[in-house]
Amino acid sequence: MSDPMHFAGRAWVFGDNVALDGDLMALHFALARETDPQVLRQHIFAGIDSTLAERIQPGDLIVTGRRFAHGNPHIQGLIGLQGAGSGLICESIASGAYRCAVNAALPFLPRAPGITQMVAQGDQLEVDFRTGAFRNVTQDIETRFDPLPEIALSIIARGGWLPSFRDRLARHATA
């Protein structure tokens, strides 16, 4: 991927009410405070599809329904998705998970109404997370969803909250 905010890959479709703990990532990773993306990527969606982590490729896209990542706002599952090199498109996402996804530098579209009706498992998709442009190559569907606000996109582009914080500190120190 030459543009880290443009993805082209296979769709992995999940329905509504996917929980952060248990579905997306086992709770013990949050309790252990694991934050290594290469460790966490090996365990994404283990509660729903224990083989997904072995099959997902960089550029692939996770497509979910309503109330994605509800529950306690643990960042581990979202770090795991980012570590796998995947992007996320969901009909709706819990507010705590929204913040965690930005902090984890996970490109995502948080409000994509009807997306699960536009995508089947394995479809080839293209998404530009900066503009919200969406294309299902397999089904020849094109549309646009609202992208994240520019401030959130800039945090993701910098690599998440820690690199963004360090950049602000450096700018402040030289001012």
What does it look like?
With 175 residues, the protein is α/β, with parallel strands linked by helices. Helix content is 33%, strand content 18%. Strand 5 and strand 6 (133-136) form a beta hairpin. The longest helix has 14 residues, at 161-174. It is globular and about 50 Å long. The model has no long low-confidence stretch (mean pLDDT 94).
Short note summarizing the structure:
The chain has eight helices and seven strands; from the N terminus they run βαααβαβαβαβββαα. It is an alpha/beta fold. Strand 5 and strand 6 form a beta hairpin.
List keywords for this structure.
175 residues, alpha/beta, 7-stranded mixed β-sheet, 8 helices
Mean pLDDT: 94
Q: For the record, give the distance between the C-alpha atoms at the N and C termini, rounded to a whole number.
A: 35 Å
Structural class: alpha/beta
Low-confidence stretches: none
Beta-strand level of the residues, as a percent range? 15-25%
Helix percentage range: 25-40%
Summarize the helix and strand pattern as letters: EHHHEHEHEHEEEHH
The main sheet orders its strands as: 4-3-2-1-5-6-7
Q: Which shape, going by the Cα principal axes? A: globular
Number of helices: 8
The strand count comes to 7
What profile does the largest beta sheet have? 7 strands, mixed
CA radius of gyration: 15 Å
